[in-house]
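Exercise 7. Given the encoded structure of a 403-residue chain, write a plausible sequence.
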């Protein structure tokens, strides 16, 4: 494929990931309205806000194996259909239990799209893998910004919290048609190094899927998933019920997380050029400071908007992109689909209980204590795990020409 066609394909697929992010992020800003209508507790609201990650996590590993048997394009399309359908059905919920099911099942579709999309883009742009995945995270940031912001405005304008789910689900179905017709399998089914004139040797990369590097990176993904989604699940509730901010201000603050995620592009660029392990360690340490300040620092809207941006830049921009690309680099090319599935499972299964865990900490230690333990102390476990990662065994560690 020409560079122009490949980049257009990347833009279109990134656009579909924007909708994925909008579907995910809009729920948290609507939790107060949903709790008011259904009478849900704070714990139930926090669980519903993050339970979609359970569907993502559970579907992660099976999707990785599915990618070995079906085309990435087919898995991607099926995933978009599933999460768009359950996004629409969320608006038809009548109780906690069916809303729980719809939110969890929407995550299954999101996992399928995520693993297929990141595998396809990572393989096509293998030489600049972290930068390419950073571009997808840029798209996620756009959706994370506009999803809550537009969702809050639509809810206010129509006096109906269901409106955003109808709109975002419909847009998702539109992308199914665009990708089906407009994206070639020459882009989605590429393999690492297939376009290089001189092939590479990957003898220095462990042959097994579950090697030491992959498992240590998976531990780091668990830590980041728990911390990030602890923040995402109940942060809007904290802003509105504890700090007294309006729905619009809370929506703007949460949306700034998405703007922070746009940092994924330079974060990926740095990950391709510097020691990726060190980039992640520094990011985790910075994230601990920001996580503490979010719930123990300044309480004005302006400061909260800035801190939410910083959390997005660190957690989604630097850590999500570099952990994901590192796990793909920790295995040989034939195992990239399963490594992607492993990342999805490691990151999102723990995230499913992050909101509930955070609510339990709030009840026992207050908002400040919850921020301290889940967002400041927990990330240090990821730092410890990364100290034992050997970057010399990554697939991009050295180029060995085969003659």
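Solution.
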């Amino acid at each position: 494929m020409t560079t122009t066609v490949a980049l257009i394909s990347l833009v279109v697929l990134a656009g579909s990931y924007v909708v994925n992010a909008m579907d995910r992020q809009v729920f948290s800003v609507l939790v107060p309205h949903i709790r008011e209508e259904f009478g849900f507790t704070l714990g139930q609201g926090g669980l519903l806000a993050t339970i979609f990650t359970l569907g993502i996590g559970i579907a992660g590993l099976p999707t990785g194996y599915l990618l070995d048997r079906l085309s990435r394009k087919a898995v991607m399309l099926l995933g978009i259909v599933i999460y768009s359908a359950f996004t629409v059905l969320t608006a038809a919920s009548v109780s906690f239990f069916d809303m729980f099911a719809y939110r969890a099942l929407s995550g299954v579709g999101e996992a399928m799209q995520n693993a297929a999309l990141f595998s396809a883009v990572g393989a096509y742009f293998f030489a600049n893998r972290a930068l390419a995945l950073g571009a997808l995270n840029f798209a996620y940031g756009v959706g994370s910004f506009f999803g809550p912001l537009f969702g809050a405005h639509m809810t206010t304008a129509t006096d109906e919290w269901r409106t955003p789910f109808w709109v975002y689900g419909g847009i998702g179905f539109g992308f199914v048609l665009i990708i089906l017709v407009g994206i070639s399998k020459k882009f989605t089914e590429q393999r690492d190094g297939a376009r290089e004139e001189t092939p590479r040797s990957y003898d220095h990369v462990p042959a097994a899927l579950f090697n030491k590097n992959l498992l240590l990176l998976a531990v780091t993904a668990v830590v980041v998933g728990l911390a990030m989604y602890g923040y995402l699940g109940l942060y809007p509730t904290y802003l509105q019920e504890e700090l007294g901010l309006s729905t619009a201000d809370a929506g703007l603050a949460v949306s700034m997380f998405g703007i922070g995620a746009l940092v994924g592009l330079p974060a990926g660029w740095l990950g391709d050029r510097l020691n990726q392990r060190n980039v992640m360690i520094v990011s985790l340490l910075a994230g601990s400071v920001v996580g503490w300040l979010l719930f123990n620092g300044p309480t004005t809207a302006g400061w909260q908007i800035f801190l939410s941006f910083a959390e997005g830049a660190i957690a989604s921009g630097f850590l999500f992109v570099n952990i994901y690309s590192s796990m793909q680099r920790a295995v040989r090319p034939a195992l990239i689909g399963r490594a992607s599935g492993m990342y999805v499972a490691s990151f999102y299964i723990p995230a499913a209980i992050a909101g509930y865990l955070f609510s339990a900490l709030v009840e026992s230690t207050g908002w400040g204590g919850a921020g301290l333990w889940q967002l400041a102390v927990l990330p240090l476990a990821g730092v410890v795990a990364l100290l034992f990662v050997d970057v010399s065994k990554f697939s991009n560690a050295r180029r060995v020409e085969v003659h």
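Remark. Residues 399-403 have pLDDT under 50 and may be disordered. Students should compare their own answers with the one above.
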